[in-house]
Write a structure and sequence with these properties.
mainly beta, Methylamine Dehydrogenase, Chain H, Immunoglobulin-like, four-stranded antiparallel beta sheet, 36 strands, globular
Length: about 400
Amino acid sequence: MKKTFLLFNFSLFLFYVLQVNNCKCQWVQKPDGMGTTQYGSSFAISGAYLFSGNWKGGGIFLTTNNGESWTSANNGITFPYISSIAVKETYVFAGTNGEGVFRSTNMGSSWTQFNTGLTNPAVWSLTLSGLNLFAGTHNGGVFLTTNNGQYWTAVNNGLTNFNVLSMASVGTNIFAGTENGLFRSTNNGVSWDSVHNGLSNKYIVCFTVSGTNIFAGTVNGVFLSTNYGANWTAVNNGLTSMTVLSIASHGTNLFAGTLNGVFCSVNNGETWTIKNEGFTIIPEVRCLIVANNYVFSGTNYQSVWRRSYPEIIGIKKISTEIPSSFFLSQNYPNPFNPKTIINFQLPMSNAVKLIIYDVMGREAATLVNEKLNPGTYEVEWNASNYPSGVYFYRLVSGNFADTKKLILVK
């Protein structure tokens, strides 16, 4: 009887541990305060304040605890059909699908409408460039404000399609994605030029910017430009759902929201992996953001979901016990083909880089470039796309640095 009782208790304990670990490695719905059926359209973050815009009348919700709970933040918003949100210093702007732009100066506690000069009130997208705010509208083209929304001016010279679905900025380059073409302005909207070279589809749904790289999500996958839009290259290897509704980036890591859930790339779009673990029903993912070591997804009628950012990009925390010192383990197996595991220990919270170099000292891959908490971590390197040979991996965190050799044999 005692053995049976102990075995039963151990089974319960094991089930609990497995469940806890499983929850950390999947999407978890976080609807507390907003309900489970909101239709997400946009995210924006300012410090501890994360804003979620909702398309079908839910308006704006705000969380200050990474989505554990949400509060309605619609005081003053008379048309709670939100299509886009942008944050500029102490200002938060919300674009609506019918009543223009609302502005908050107190982190969403109250909102005031600012539409003077905005002749088309269906605002689909917002983007900031320095002190300027651009609004892309439905069949009205692009509008610009230089005074935080006090007055708007149409800036459409050169645009041949006025249904602006998405906007982005890289330095002095402003991009407008429309339902039939992609346009770029280098003079704050005074004029626009078509930049389509390499695009197999001109229905531009979304953008994300990583350094000087700009990624465009279309109904035919993701395209990358490394020269400010002059040329575009398809980066869709592994992306099995080609209608890309949203896209987010953090360093070289990308997330694409599609009609069939979320895909992740850890190498600037070279390859993609589906990441739908935890979704009860595979959703259309309408918006994404990386914030506070999490990835948040806004879905169609399934509200907001959250997942650990280190986990989703392949950094597994295998022990929470705080080590006494830094340590970089030898990879295993070694030699390997084509995958190998690297473990490392961190005694303190710090920025961490784990980089693979070839025998000539050239950077081959970045496996970790994040701030991590103390603990023991495991990272896998998939070298399927790399030639056989000797490589080196180097861990740098604070004043600690260590390098070891690994051998790829194919």
